[in-house]
């Protein structure tokens, strides 16, 4: 089984942390969308598609021409009190080891570990080749099935493709952060 995860197109967040805020996406880069459409067709022909219900994800899937269903469990991490803060006002947590960073929970929100506990069962339950259109946190949650909390160190660009393969219960990273 192959799992291809596309991070949504650049979010129109106004310089503020989006997380669970339902912001739009900039889907105007025709060349980037054509390249992603071709990459998905080449690697994942015939795969089912599921999307986070967030506007930025649904709009990205639609612009890619991917008929899809939505799944609430694929939402981005809930950053609680940090939601909507300008990026320059986010707290500096300093240098934390990956496992400690993964356990950190913003007030009223969820930790990366909490997000993984929500997202990973949904990904593991997929039975055939699937394209998921979701968020950077969702991509990192999938990567964490292979590398644990060090997945937080992966760059996940907007409109990028990450592919994992499953053999039995074991997952492997085939491709990470492919962009146009």
Biggest β-sheet, characterized?
6 strands, mixed
**Mean pLDDT score, rounded?**
97
CATH architecture: 3-Layer(aba) Sandwich
Helix share of residues? 25-40%
By DSSP (H or I, 4+ residues per run), the number of helices equals 5
Outline: globular
Secondary structure tally: strands: 6
Order of SSEs: EHEHEHHEHEE
**In percent, how much strand structure appears in the residues?**
15-25%
CATH superfamily: Phosphoglycerate mutase-like
Whole-angstrom Rg: 16 Å
Describe the protein's architecture and organization.
It is a single chain. Helix content is 31%, strand content 18%. With 180 residues, the protein is an alpha/beta fold. It has a single domain, classed as Rossmann fold, CATH 3.40.50.1240. Helix 2 links the parallel strand 2 (48-51) and strand 3 (69-70). Helix 4 (112-124) packs across helix 5 (136-147). The radius of gyration is 16 Å and the shape is globular.
Q: How would you summarize what this structure contains?
A:
With 180 residues, the chain is of the alpha/beta class.
Please describe the topology of this protein:
Blueprint: E1 2-7, H1 30-44, E2 48-51, H2 55-63, E3 69-70, H3 98-103, H4 112-124, E4 130-134, H5 136-147, E5 161-167, E6 170-178
Parallel strand pairs: 1-4, 2-3, 2-4
Antiparallel strand pairs: 1-5, 5-6
Helix pairs in contact: 4-5
